[in-house]
Automatic annotation (TrEMBL):
Signal peptide extent: none
Record-annotated DUF7779 domain positions: 61-107
Any Pfam family matching the protein: DUF7779
Protein name: DUF7779 domain-containing protein
Gene3D superfamilies in the cross-refs: Tetratricopeptide repeat domain
Species annotation: Sclerotinia nivalis
Amino acid sequence: MAGLIHRRDWSISEFMEMYNRQLQKMHGVSGNGSINALWNISFNSLDPQKDEIGLPESLKFCAGNLSFWNAIDDLLSRALIKRDRDTKTLSLHRLVQTSYKYFMTFEQREQSFSDAVSLLHLAFPRHDAVAQLYQKWNRCMELLPHILTLKDNFREEIATARAFKAPPFFCELNNLCERYLLETNSLPSSDKTNDMLSSVTSYKGQLLVRIGKASEGVDIQKRSYEIRTEGVPENPREVAWASENAGNAIATTNQFSESIIWLERAIDIWLRWAKTQSQEKDVYPAVLKKSYGTVLLWMGCGEKARTILEEGLRQIESTEPYSWAMAAYTHFALGTLDRQDRNYITSEAHFMEAQNMWTFGDQLRTDPFNASCMYRMGCVALDQGNLEAAINSPAEHARCVFKLSEALHQEPRYESEASRLRMHAERLLCEINPEAAEFGDELAYDSPVNMHGANLEPNVDNREKIQYLCGVTSIVQ
């Protein structure tokens, strides 16, 4: 490489520009007078047996410690890879990666891609019994960069050779990855709605609900349910989750009666399936209880909602592994219910516990649910006349700005700041809802937020029926 730069009198930036623009030519696909020549001797001298990567046949050597370390020894001795003893990770320079890529034939590249997919597919966590990955976020986060690299490699290969094929489980791996990204609010928005299978359709629908396009999301979630019911053989658990997702999306559009129909259908499907199992024949998951109880709360059925939510929380507390996310959501719903009943002390305790549960599991403060907890704690503080706490808690979005302006307005020293924030909140509300006419009601700022954030019927009289801020729908696998 240094020789190329020296002979052609390139600067480093000129070399990198040429390298990035004409990668294959710079590596020399068909010649030895190139960067490839640096490693060709090492590549050619590798033991063919150690080229068998796959837990299909090709990766069998990974299954045994001795054979695996024999292969690693071979690569380390030729300086093709490096090993960090502290982190116990292996790495190789991207020039070595690229050179080896062009050292391989098309067939070898296709097989190597399939092998890499096999490894990641085996390593990536599967969702739990309630179709969630919350307990396994750390492992998912470690593997995500590798999956994204595979995706980039696939696009690069398919662009140069349409005959390049990926194994079927590459799609499943991407679906699992989408599930993780959706749970962490990291899934990018997309306008493409091609014919997708139910899992992908469900992710699309939930994403639309989360970004404020609830009506579109409802249509897609209903389609996801239809796809699940058409499965042969039918998978009752997945049909139940699809029905719950549709119910949650419908609740976001304030159609609570219809939402209850979908949620009760999900419960009925689950219980019918449970009767065919050896245990827990009359029990349905706490995830469903969280959704069902929350919508009952919004409908004004407070007593029944409390019974369902408390039952769900007891179920969560007695189950291993502990579902911190579902515990957080359920505490949040109970806090909302207590605030409605003007039990401000217990309401604040539930919101604080919801935030503690979330930060314990997620270990990040950037998720919308954390902002939601802060917002509600600020609301409860303001309800109790605790202006200092109320001023410090609300932090984001139009309703947070509105509530902050209300808190500041009660403190004479901040009257001008309160007026400025109120005007800002009204501008934000107009951007979200150009038809907005009422700017002095908390409900007006709650309504645009998705089903787990607000969205109440305009004619609901009880201002205290306030929902979650963020999208935390239960997601189909």
